[in-house]
Each structure stands twice: as structure tokens, then as C-alpha cells.
């Protein structure tokens, strides 16, 4: 009996060694299961949205009812963008039809935007539309939008202005780290138009942001306000984080994603080095939870009881996957991204079917100091989660992310 038991134990060990996931990989069906769950949620969401011809879902109010977003809002591009990802994953025509209908609500603003977030709004929606359909009409929307955004650039400051000047808030030329995300539209516009001015603006903005937003440890301030006459920083603050000197989680995620993306388009080593510095700060931070889903601020006073922010986690994971393909020793970033995505796909952050007002993820934080959107779903958390899942699936299949991106540095040669 002992011999038999020992033989069975050996077989069990051998079987486990053959079936165990490789380092950096999760179970094969994680992406499929997560997308299936997302499809159910957003399928229900489409039924709910059908009655609203002007707005789209953003989050929930404190009473649990839907908070709709106007097409002019900075988050307006994420819902149609998520629909495009669902179309890409499933091939189902209903997602494409819905994405086209939803993004049609925002096209009007390609020439009328009065803040930097036109990059978010148009690239997440029309950018994905162009990538997946090759419809030439979308090129005009993207280039026109980039031209509108370029109007916010100042040679004196070397930055695109984010929010508008405000006497009451003492802002003269405010630039937030989130603005790094809007640079992708500028790179894309240079590819589509052949005009280098958009790319040049993006590079200048990214370099200036390294100089003035970032601290020696790789963390960043949220906002730097410039003197528009001299171009020098007037003050550095963190509006949506715990304190001016703290590391607001989503701000760190925006910066990480932005510099990884800038390296994709330029192969400028400065941007890769900055991305790695930010990534190491995040992954190795003493207050990064074991499941890889960050607290809303790394310096929040009530850790470990502070709110988590799945939006920051999803953005970080998506960026970590891409960074893993560029950085020396990049495997560590892919392993970290896998940990985060596995957590987000679990019961702690993914709701039961039909719950959470049919948003895909639970427990995001928008602006805690302002008591706005605290521990709620957010449409941009859903968007970057779906994106991260797609990037994970590509890498797990042994394919190259470079072949998935619509454009890279190869497309900017000669521009």
C-alpha cells in the first residue's frame, strides 16, 4: 500500500509540473472568462443606454443611480472605446454598431474642445475605430482633433495647457500629469498627416514634464502651474491626491502609461528610462498591496483600510504589459501585470452578473478629496481593464504587441 501511495504521489507531482502555468502567465481561460463577463455586463448596459440619445454612462451617483456624462466630458470616449474592444474580442457586429453610434455623439467636439482631454476623448474612440475598421473618414476626425489640441501648446512653457486659467484657484497655466495620455493623439496625427508639428509638441511636452513634474524617487506631482510669461513653474500641487507631496495612484498610472507610449512612438531612451523609474517606484512601493491593486494614494493616512482604485490598477497593468516588451529584465513587469489583472478579474473587484449597474469593475476612486466618485465603478477603469486583458492575451499567445498597435515609431520615420 505504501508503494502504491508513493507512486500516486509521484504521478501527482509530475502532472502538476506539466500543467502549472508558466511564470508571468495566468490560467488560459482568464481573458476569455473576463471578456465573457464584460460582454454580459455591457450587453445589459446597451439596453439601458438605448433610451439616452445624448449622454453615455460614466459612473454611479451616491444614491446608486446612473451618472451620465455629456459628450463634452473628458470621459466620453471611454464607453465607445470599450465597445470597440468588445467588438475586437468577440467579432460580434452589435458591438461595432453600438460603438459607431456612441462615438457619433462626440465627433461634433473635434473643433470645439476647450481643454486637453480631447486626446482621451477622440483617440480611445475614433482611434480604435480607425485601427479596427480602416475607415478613412476617421483620419480627418483624429487630425482635426489634434489640431484643436495643438492650440493649447505654448513654446514658452513647453507644455500643452491642461485645465483653463482660474483666478479663484490661482491657476495661470495649469498642467496635470494626466496630460501625458493625450500625447498619443498627437503622435497619431503626425503619422496620418505627415506633419511633424504634432509629434514635436508631444516630445517637448513629455520632456518638460519629466523636468518639472517628477521627483527623484520616480513619483510625480499631480499639477504644475506655470507662469505663461516666463515659462517657469509657479507651484506644484496634488489636487486629487492626499497631499501635495503624496503619490496619487492614478496620477502615477497616467504618467507610467504616457512614457511607455512615448517610447513606442519615438524610441527615445529618455522616455523608456522614465517609464522604468516610475514602474519600479510603483511595483516596489511598501504600500503596494499584495494583490497589485493600489490604494487610491500611496500615502493615504488610513492604509491598509484606505480605498483601492481599480482604475489606477487597470491603467498600470496595461502599461506594465507594454513596458515588459521594451525594458531590460522586463519579465518582472509582466509578472506584476498578471498579478494585478488576475486580482481584478476575481470576485473582489468583478461583480456578479447584472450587478454594479452593469459596469465591469467595482471599487474605483475618482476624486476622494472632493468627495466625488469614491468607491464606485468608472467607465475608464473598464476601458483600461479590457485593454490590459487584450494585451495580456497577445503576449500569452507568444505574439508581438508591436503588431497589434495601430502605429509605432516605424510609422513616424521621415515625419
From TrEMBL:
One of its GO terms (biological process) is polysaccharide catabolic process. Gene3D superfamilies: 1.50.10.10. Keywords: Hydrolase, Signal. Substrate binds at residues 117, 178, 238, 250, 254. Residues 1-22 form the signal peptide. The keyword Signal applies. PROSITE patterns: PROKAR_LIPOPROTEIN. The active site is at residues 117, 178. GO terms for molecular function: chondroitin hydrolase activity. Belongs to the glycosyl hydrolase 88 family. PANTHER family: HYDROLASE, PUTATIVE (AFU_ORTHOLOGUE AFUA_7G05090)-RELATED. This is Glucuronyl hydrolase. It comes from Fulvitalea axinellae.
Amino acid at each position: 500500500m505504501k508503494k502504491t501511495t508513493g507512486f500516486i504521489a509521484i504521478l501527482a507531482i509530475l502532472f502538476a509540473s506539466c500543467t502549472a502555468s508558466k511564470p508571468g502567465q495566468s490560467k488560459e481561460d482568464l481573458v476569455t472568462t473576463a471578456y465573457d463577463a464584460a460582454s454580459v455586463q455591457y450587453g445589459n448596459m446597451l439596453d439601458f443606454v438605448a433610451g439616452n440619445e445624448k449622454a453615455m454612462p460614466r459612473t454611479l451617483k451616491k444614491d446608486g443611480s446612473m451618472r451620465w456624462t455629456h459628450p463634452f466630458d473628458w470621459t466620453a470616449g471611454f464607453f465607445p472605446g470599450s465597445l470597440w474592444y468588445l467588438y475586437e474580442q468577440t467579432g460580434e457586429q452589435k458591438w461595432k454598431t453600438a460603438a459607431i453610434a456612441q462615438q457619433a455623439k462626440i465627433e461634433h467636439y473635434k473643433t470645439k474642445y476647450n481643454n486637453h482631454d480631447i486626446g482621451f476623448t477622440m483617440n480611445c474612440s475614433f482611434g480604435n475605430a480607425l485601427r479596427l475598421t480602416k475607415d478613412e473618414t476617421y483620419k480627418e476626425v483624429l487630425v482635426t482633433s489634434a489640431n484643436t489640441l495643438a492650440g493649447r501648446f505654448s513654446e514658452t512653457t513647453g507644455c500643452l495647457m491642461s485645465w483653463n486659467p482660474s483666478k479663484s484657484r490661482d491657476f495661470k497655466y495649469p498642467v496635470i500629469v494626466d496630460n501625458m495620455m493625450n500625447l498619443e493623439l498627437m503622435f497619431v496625427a503626425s503619422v496620418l498627416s505627415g506633419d511633424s508639428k504634432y509629434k514635436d509638441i508631444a516630445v517637448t511636452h513629455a520632456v518638460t514634464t519629466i523636468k518639472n513634474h517628477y521627483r527623484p524617487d520616480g513619483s510625480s506631482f499631480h499639477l504644475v502651474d506655470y507662469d505663461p510669461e516666463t515659462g517657469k513653474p509657479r507651484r506644484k500641487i496634488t489636487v486629487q491626491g492626499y497631499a501635495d507631496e503624496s503619490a496619487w495612484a492614478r496620477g502615477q498610472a497616467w504618467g507610467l502609461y504616457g512614457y511607455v507610449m512615448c517610447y513606442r512612438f519615438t524610441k527615445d531612451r529618455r522616455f523608456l528610462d522614465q517609464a522604468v523609474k516610475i514602474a519600479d517606484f510603483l511595483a516596489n512601493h511598501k504600500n503596494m498591496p499584495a494583490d497589485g491593486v493600489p490604494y487610491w494614494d500611496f500615502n493615504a493616512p488610513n492604509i491598509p483600510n484606505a480605498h483601492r482604485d481599480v482604475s489606477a490598477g487597470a491603467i498600470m497593468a496595461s502599461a506594465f504589459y507594454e513596458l515588459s516588451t521594451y525594458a531590460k529584465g522586463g519579465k518582472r513587469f509582466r509578472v506584476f501585470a498578471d498579478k494585478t489583472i488576475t486580482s481584478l478579474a476575481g470576485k473582489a473587484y468583478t461583480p456578479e452578473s447584472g450587478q454594479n449597474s452593469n459596469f465591469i469593475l467595482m471599487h474605483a476612486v475618482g476624486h476622494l478629496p472632493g468627495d466625488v466618485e469614491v468607491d464606485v465603478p468608472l467607465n475608464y477603469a473598464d476601458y483600461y481593464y479590457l485593454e490590459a486583458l487584450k494585451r495580456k492575451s497577445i503576449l500569452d499567445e507568444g505574439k508581438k504587441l508591436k503588431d497589434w498597435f495601430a502605429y509605432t515609431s516605424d510609422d513616424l520615420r521621415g515625419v
